[in-house]
Amino acid sequence: MNKIIEVTNLSKSFRDIKAVDNLSFTVEAGQVYGFLGQNGAGKSTTIRMLLTLITPTSGEIEIFGLKLSKHRKEILRQVGAIIERPDLYKYLTALENLRIFATMSGVKISEKQLMDQLEMVGLAKRAHSKVKEFSQGMKQRLGIATALVHDPALIILDEPTNGLDPQGIADIRNLILLLCRERGKTLLISSHLLSEIEMIADSMIIIDKGKKLVEGKVNELFDPAETIVELKTTDDAATYLKLEQSPLKKYMHGKRNDCLLLKLHRDEVPSVMKELVQMDVNVISLHSKHSLEDYFLSLTTGSTHVEVAKN
Amino acid sequence: MMIELVKAKKRMSVQKLMITLLAVAFLLPTASQAQTAEELILKVKAKLDKVNDYQADGKMKTNVVFIKAPIAKVKVYYKKPNKLKINNESGISFIPKGSVNINLNNIFLNTTGFDIIDVGKESGTNFRIIKMLPKDENADVVLSTVYIDEAQALIRKAKTTTKENGTYELEMTYGKYAEFGLADKVIFSFNTKDYKLPKGITFDYDDGTKKEQTPDKLKNKKGKVEISYSSYVINKGLPDSVFK
Amino acid sequence: MWKLLKIELFKIFKRPRTYIAFGAIAAVVFLIQIALKFDGKSYIDLLLSNLSGSFEFSDDFKNKLLNGYLICFVILNTLLIQMPLLVALISGDSIAGEANMGTLRLSLTKPISRMQYMIVKFAASIIYTLALLIFMAALALVGSMLIFGTNDMVVLRSEGIEQIKSFDVLWRYFAAFGFAAVALTTVSALAFLLSVFSENSIGPIIATMSIVIVFTILSEMNIPIYDETVKPYLFTSHMVAWKGFFYVQADAEGTTINGSMENFPAVMRSLGILIIYIFLFFGTAVWVFKKKDILT
To answer: Looking at the domain assignment, is residue A40 inside a domain?
Structure first.
C-alpha cells in the first residue's frame, strides 16, 4: 500500500511551548485514519501543519510522495479540508460559496456540476439561499460539499462532528464511509468522539502533549476480549453484592458512581445479559464502554496498565 | 520850422519804437507763460467733454501681490459724466473698487469748483503738475494732482486721494484716440487690504520650499490693474442699463 | 490570477457595506452642491470677506466664481479627508474580515500561494478605491459642471488667490484625480497591512483612521518642531499634493502662465514618496503574512 501522508520528526514550538514534539506517523492510501488526543494535545496544530496553515519548526511532511514544502500547490490541489466548523461566506448563497471555493481549488467546474455537488449533500433546493439562513447541520453539509467539490484524493477533517446533533454525526459517519470505501479516498480525521473513530477508523494515532503515545490499526490496538461494559441498575450497590456471590464475579471490573463495570469478551455480552435477568437484577442499561476510550484514558492519564499495541 | 518838424518826427518814431518795445516786453512773458493752470485745466476738460460715451475693448492685467490672474479680455463702458464699468463678459476678473475713477472726468466732477495750485513742471518729463482741491468739503475727492502734457492737453498721470477709496494713481499712454483724451493704456494703482485665510480652512499643500519670512511683504501694498485698449467706439450712445 | 481577482471583486461588491461608501460620497457631494446652489453667495462672501473692501464683487462675479470647477474643488477639499475612512473600510477588512469569518483559514489550504493571495486581495482593494474615486469624480466634477457651469477657476490659498483660465482647468483635474488615486492607495495599503495583524476588521479600520487623522493634524498644524522633524516624512503631508496641480506660476507682474504649475518637481517628489510608502506597507504586509501561523 502506498503512503499518502508521511510525517517524520515533526515539531512545532510557539515561543517556549512545544506544541508538537518529534511526531512521526504514516497514513496509507484508502484508509480512514483517526487522530486522537485530549484538548491541547497538538492534534489541531499537526493538522494545520499538514495544510500549510502553520509552518513546522522542524521535521518533514510528505504527501502523495512529494515534499510539502516544495510542492505545496500540486499537493493541495488534491486535498480537501474542513477545520472545526465549516468556513463559509455568510452573506453569499450556497451556490456562490461553492463556486468560489471550487475556483480557488483550481478546478474548472460547470454550474451543473456545482448543483450536483449540492444535490449530493441535500442542499440543491437551498442553492440560492444565503448561508446565514442555514442551520448548523446545513452549514456542515455545505462545508463537506466545498471540501469535496474538486474531487480530492485526500480529505482532512479536524473535529468534523463538533456541534452536531446525533443525526448530523450519523450523516457524517455515513458519508465518510462512503467516500472511503466506495470512492477510494483517504481520510484523516481528528475527533473527540472516540466512539465514532472506533466505528469508522482503520488506523489511528493517539497523541498527548505533542508526542505520539501510540499508533496502529484500530482492531489491533485493543482486544475484543477486553471489552469493558457499563451496567446500570436500579440498585447498583445491591447488584454489586449479588454479582460478588455469582458466577459473574470473574467479570467484575470495578464500579463508578453511576454504574458498575464488567470486563468480558464482546461476544459474551448477550449471555451475561440473560444471566443478570435471571438473577433478578433490574437492569436499566448495559452497553459496552468504549474500550477505546478506556484505552485512551489509560494511556493519557496513566491510570490503568495496558499492553503496548502491536503494529 | 522844418528842422523842428523833423525833430518832432524823430521823437515820435522813437516813442513808437519804445511803445512797441514796451508792448512786446509786456506781451512776451504771457506768450511764453502761454496758459495759466486754469486755462490748461479748461483745455483738458474741453477735450474730455468731447466724449459722451464710449465702449472699448481691452486686455486687462491684474498685478496684485496676492493674486495670480490671467490676462482678461474686458469691455469698458463709459457714459458722461461719471459712469464707468469694466466688464469681463465671459471669464472672471478681479475689478478693483474705485475703478470708476479710471474715468478722468471724475477728477473734474464738481459743482462748486476747485482751488487750483500750479506746482510747476516735473523734471524729466516736463509735465505740468497741477493740484486741484475741490471747494466742496462733502466731495469724495479730497485732492487730485494731475500731470499734464501741455502740448497735447492730455493728462498723463493723476494721483487722487478720496475719502472712500484712499489714494489711487492713474498713468495714461495715448495713441490713436488722443484727440478724445482716450488712452491706449491705463495703469490704475489702488490700495488693497491684506489677504489671509486660515490654513485650517484651506489645507494648503506645503511643497517644502521655504516661504520668505517678510511679514511686511503682503501688507498694505498697492495693487495695479493695467488695461490696454484695442479699440473705442465713441459717442454711439449707451443705455444706462449697461452700468447696473 | 484573473479568476481569483474576479472572486475578490465579487465578494467586495456583494457586501452591503461597500455601497454605504458610495452612498456616503453621493450624500456629501449632493449636500454641498445643494447648499452652494441655494446659498453659494454667502459662502463666497465669507471666503472673500476681507477683500470686499478692495474689489468689486458683483452678483455676476459671484455667479461666475461659483462655477463647477470651484465647486468641485470645495468638494474635493472635504471629501479627500473622508475618503481615507471609506477606503480603510474595505481594505482594513481585507484579511481581518476573512480571518473573522474563518474563510481565511480555508482559503489558505487552497493551492494558491500566500503571495498570490495578498496580491489579489490588494489589487481588489485598489480597484475598489479607483471605483470610489471615479464615482466621486463623476459626481463632483461632471455633476458640478452640469449644475453650475464652467468658467475660470479661482483657488483660494491661505496666502493668496490663483485664477486659472477655464480651458486650463480640466487637465489639472485629471492629474489631481490620478494623484488622489495614489494617495488613497497609500491609505489602502496601510489598512491592508494592519488587517494582517488582526482577526477583527474594526481594529484595522479604526487604527488606520487614527493614524491618518493624527498625521494630518501634525502635517497641517504648522507646529515648528514637527514641521522640521517629522512632517516631510509623513505620508499625509504628501497626500494633499494633488492641490499642487492647481497652483500656477505667474510672471513678475502676477500674470498667470497658462499650463504651468508652481512646483511640478515637488508634486512629483510627493508622488514618489507615496509610491514608496505603498511598496513599504504592502511589502511588509506580505512578509508578515507569509510567515504567519494561522491559529484561529
So the answer is: yes
- pLDDT band at A305; cut points 50, 70, 90: very low
The reply to whether A309 falls in a domain is: no
- Cβ distance A104 to C110 less than 8 Å, yes or no, reads yes
Rounded to an integer, what distance in angstroms lies between the CA atom of residue B101 and that of residue B198?
Answer: 33
Which residue of chain C is at minimal alpha-carbon distance from A107? Answer: C111
- Look at residue A310 and tell me whether its pLDDT is greater than 50: no
| Among C45, C81, C32, C72, residue whose Cα is nearest residue C239 | C81
* Same-domain status, A273 and A290: yes
Chains C and B touch (3+ CB pairs under 8 A): yes
**Rounded distance between C-alpha atoms, residue A222 and residue A240, angstroms:** 27
Does residue A264 sit in the same domain as residue A208?
no
pLDDT reported for residue A306: 34
Q: What is the pLDDT of residue C227?
A: 78
Measured from the Cβ of residue A218, the count of other Cβ atoms closer than 10 Å reads 19
Query: Does residue C211 sit in helix, strand or coil?
Result: helix
Locate C127 and state its grid cell.
480597484
| Residues A201-215 as b or e (16 or more Cβ within 10 Å = b) | bbbbbbbbebebbbb
Contact (Cβ atoms closer than 8 angstroms) between residue B120 and residue B127: no
Q: Quick check: do B and A touch, 3+ CB pairs under 8 A?
A: no
Quickly list DSSP for B81-125: TTEEEEE-SSS---EETTGGGGSTHHHH--SS-EEEEEEEE-TTT
Domain extents in chain B: 35-234
Q: Which residue has the cell 518832432?
A: B8
Exposed, middle or buried: residue B35 (CB in 10 Å: 0-12, 13-18, 19+)?
A: middle
Tally of domains in chain A: 2
- One-letter amino acid at B25 equals A
pLDDT at A308: 34
CA distances in angstroms from C227 to A40, B206, C221, C234, listed in the order given: 53, 10, 9, 10
Q: What is the pTM of this model?
A: 0.81
CA distance linking residue C76 with residue C133, whole number of Å: 10
Q: Which CATH class is domain B35-234?
A: mainly beta
Cα-based distances in Å from A281 to A228, A260, A264 = 19, 13, 18
pLDDT grade for A307, boundaries at 50, 70 and 90: very low
Give yes or no for residue B1 having a pLDDT over 70: no
Domain limits for position A11: 3-221
- Nearest chain A CA: its distance from C93 CA (Å): 14
User: In this prediction, does ipTM exceed 0.95?
Assistant: no
A window 43-82, beta carbon within 8 A of C: 48, 51-55, 72-77, 79, 81
